[in-house]
Amino acid sequence: MSDQTLQHEELRVTIPRAEALATVEEARAAIDGIDAALAALLERRAAVAGVVQRLKPVGGFAGRCPDRERQIVAAMAERAPTLGPERLARIMNAVIEAGLEVAELQRRNVQDGHGRG
Question: What's an example GO BP annotation here (predicted)?
Answer without folding.
Answer: chorismate metabolic process
